[in-house]
Amino acid sequence: MSNPVKQLRALDLYPLPTPPEPAGAYTCAVRSGNLLFVAGQLPLRDGEIVFKGRVGQAISEAEGYQAARLCAVNALSAIEAEVGLDAVTRIVRMTGYVSSAEGFSIQAGVVNGASELMKEVFSERGIHARLAVGVTALPLDAAVELEVIAELSAA
């Protein structure tokens, strides 16, 4: 079984940043039984949206990919803060929302930025079911938003 902290160190992503503060009346993550539901994570770094606007217009597909990867880093920081990365037995599902220019239809390629990071960090346990959706706008003009559901070891 892969060690997620060791993998993150190898990727020069550890220590993880402090989880972003919720931008509304909700919490960053909720545990229900052996599942952890991580609220939508934006491409924030140091409290600022790094990737803004619609993919395919304001930013490129490659930048969208990096935005999704940053969203995944923030989701990992929320998981670490809530239960610790070692408690994750599997990333079950992710939903990626991509703020998309008219005619842009490569949302799956953008959200691969998050999916590939989860596989790098958790190996086979990081392979998950996924939904990638194009939307016209996201909170704070973010290019991508990512929701994660993780399975946890027994409490």
Keywords, separated by commas or semicolons:
155 residues, alpha+beta, 5-stranded mixed β-sheet, two-stranded antiparallel ribbon, 29% helix
The string of secondary-structure elements, in order, is: HEEEEHEHEE
Number of E strands: 7
Helical residue percent band: 25-40%
Poorly predicted parts: none
Identify the strand order in the major beta sheet.
Answer: 1-2-7-5-6
Tell me the layout of helices and strands:
Blueprint: H1 4-10, E1 29-32, E2 35-41, E3 44-45, E4 48-49, H2 61-82, E5 88-99, H3 107-122, E6 129-135, E7 144-152
Parallel strand pairs: 5-6
Antiparallel strand pairs: 1-2, 2-7, 3-4, 5-7
Helix pairs in contact: 2-3
Could you please describe the fold and organization of this structure?
The chain has 155 residues and is α+β, with helices and mostly antiparallel strands. It contains three helices and seven strands, in the order H-E-E-E-E-H-E-H-E-E. Strands 1-2-7-5-6 form a five-stranded mixed beta sheet. A two-stranded antiparallel ribbon has the order 3-4. Helix 2 (61-82) packs across helix 3. The longest helix has 22 residues, at 61-82. It is globular. It starts with a helix and ends with a strand. The mean pLDDT is 96.
Overview in brief:
This protein is an alpha+beta fold.
